[in-house]
Write a structure and sequence with these properties.
Strands 2-4-5-7-6 form a five-stranded mixed β-sheet. A two-stranded antiparallel sheet has the order 1-3. The protein has one domain: Histidine kinase-like ATPase, C-terminal domain (Heat Shock Protein 90). Helices cover 27% and strands 28% of the residues. A hairpin with a 2-residue loop joins strand 4 and strand 5. Residues 1-7, 105-109 and 151-157 have low confidence and may be disordered. The protein has 157 residues and is of the alpha+beta class. Its EC number is 2.7.13.3. Residues 37-151 form the Histidine kinase domain. This is histidine kinase.
């Protein structure tokens, strides 16, 4: 369960960390942050780090990963999108399942155990939100986290 302490996160604040990791891999990193996310700060950082790390792993050199955060009256949305290998449509419903690896050949060069996206999904569940993924045939994949609550309580950390 998420700690009772709440954290109003600005996803763009981690830009330098992600830019460094992306740059080391020969990839550009872009942040478009127009809103705040009310969430457990540690869990949010871990979830976004997981999504960005996966994007770095599968994005070809010279391409760009985009982290977007927006908020409105309905909630906040954080998404990570990148070009790279397509996740086939039949695998999309299961990518957040524990230990599920959609393409064994994609994981042979990494130490993937199929837990990262399951952890992301558990985190978003603690916030009564939802995680989703789209992967288009043009080779563009987007992971999206929706947080239904965006107004901060009286005390924020």
């Amino acid at each position: 369960m998420a700690r009772q302490i709440r954290y109003v996160a600005k996803p763009g604040q981690r830009r330098e960390f992600f830019e460094g990791s992306a740059s080391d891999a020969g990839i550009s990193f872009s942040v478009i942050a127009t809103g705040k996310v009310l969430a457990d700060g540690l869990l949010l950082r871990r979830a976004v780090s997981n999504l960005v790390s996966n994007a770095i792993r599968y994005t070809p050199k010279g391409e760009t990963i985009t982290l977007t955060a927006t908020a409105n009256d309905d909630g906040a949305v954080v998404s990570v999108s990148n070009p790279g290998p397509v996740i086939m449509q039949e695998h999309l419903p299961r990518v957040f399942d524990r230990f599920y690896i959609s393409d064994k050949s994609r994981s042979s060069t990494s130490a993937s155990a199929g837990l990262g996206l399951s952890i992301v999904n558990s985190f978003i569940g603690l916030h009564h939100g939802r995680a989703s993924v789209t992967s288009e045939l043009d080779g563009f994949t987007q992971f999206t986290l929706f947080f239904p609550e965006t107004t901060a309580p009286n005390e924020t950390v």
